[in-house]
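help with this.
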Amino acid sequence: MAIDDKESPKPAAEEQHEEPEAKVWYAIRVTYNREMKVKDDLDARGIECFIPMKYALVVRRGRRVKRLVPTIHNLIFFHIEPSAMKAYKASTRLPIRYIMNPATKRPVVVPDGQMRSFIAVAGTCDEQLEYVKVDSRKFKRGDRVRIVGGPFEGAEGVLRRVRGSQRVVVSIEGVVAVMTTDIHPSLIVKV
């Protein structure tokens, strides 16, 4: 009795196994100050995101109240697979667009380590943090350091002297940078 080739199972070697796509951090522009609406949408879909936040006094019904608000309007970071990002962009009606790297003409993808350091500092909502526009010429000087204690422990950045105090600048190249408050020399090690 002959075995029909159409019915025979394929050997395991012929089966294609695709490795799952790795998640990356995208820097995204959100227009019209809708970053919190985008965050709510991402949370509902189970997509990890980060918005640098700070406490600010706002007027509500004639009273001044302290609220948590985005530090940098129109900026949000997505942690998502590239194919899922394309699908999200195609399915949402919210106004989002990639921040592009001018040299490569591709979306800015933030390395995981750099993003962890940025979140370690910017995620504290500390009122004394300073956000600065990225100017690559400013960050060429100084030693690359890691903070080994205190609320910013584990963050890596460039040591700078600002107004007589030592600060660590953690930057996401081409997007944003954040400066810590004064850091005691005992809490810093050279990388």
About this structure: Residues 21-110 form a domain with the Alpha-Beta Plaits fold (CATH 3.30.70.940).
